[in-house]
Amino acid sequence: MASNSKNDNFFEKVYEVARQIPYGKVTSYGAIAVYLGAARSARMVGWAMNNSHHQTNEIPAHRVVNRKGILTGKHHFDGTNLMQQLLENEGIEVVENQIQNFEKVFWNPSKELL
DNA sequence: ACCATGACGTTTC
DNA sequence: CGAAACGCCATGG
């Protein structure tokens, strides 16, 4: 297990940003990584999401996709289309695991959030 | 210390 | 656009 430091600031920050994603919006792992100052650790953001399962908080990981707007992580959700269903429920168009109008629903923490 | 894996991203072909 | 290679970084064996 990770170093049980007092707090895994990195992971917690990822969760914090993910929770702040507005309804009907999505963001990318890289955007979060950049916001956290770890632009080259986009993969670590994904790792944090993976850990989000054992977080007591409900992390809207379905709102976090890759740079192309593809639901790369849908495979980690329950079932196979849960992630897509959640996004469509928020008014986001998803076709073939890819978000439509991605740039319109894209929420950049480094820009929107300050 | 080394190698393999991964919910990524960019570059190149 | 798609596939492959490379880069990047943390975790596990």
Summarize the structure in words.
- It contains five helices and four strands; from the N terminus they run αβααβαββα.
- The protein has helices spanning 9-19, 29-36, 42-51, 82-89, 102-105; strands at 27-28, 64-65, 94-95, 98-99.
- Residues 2-6 have low confidence and may be disordered.
- It is mainly α and 114 residues long.
- Strand 3 (94-95) and strand 4 form a beta hairpin.
- Helices cover 36% and strands 7% of the residues.
- The relative contact order is 0.19.
- The protein binds a DNA duplex (13 and 13 nucleotides) through residues 1-2, 28-30, 33, 38-50, 61, 64-68, 71-77.
- This is Cysteine methyltransferase.
**What does the overall shape look like?**
globular
Number of continuous helical runs = 5
CATH class: Mainly Alpha
- For the largest sheet, list the strands in their spatial order: 1-2
CATH arch. level architecture: Orthogonal Bundle
CATH fold naming: Arc Repressor Mutant, subunit A
N-to-C order of helices and strands: HEHHEHEEH
Largest sheet: 2 strands, parallel
Share of helical residues? 25-40%
Write the layout of secondary structure elements.
Blueprint (H helix, E strand, L loop, with lengths): L8 H11 L7 E2 H8 L5 H10 L12 E2 L16 H8 L4 E2 L2 E2 L2 H4 L9
Parallel strand pairs: 1-2
Antiparallel strand pairs: 3-4
Helix pairs in contact: 1-3, 2-3
The structure holds a DNA duplex (13 and 13 nucleotides).
GO molecular function: methyltransferase activity
Keywords: DNA damage, Methyltransferase, Transferase
Protein name: Cysteine methyltransferase
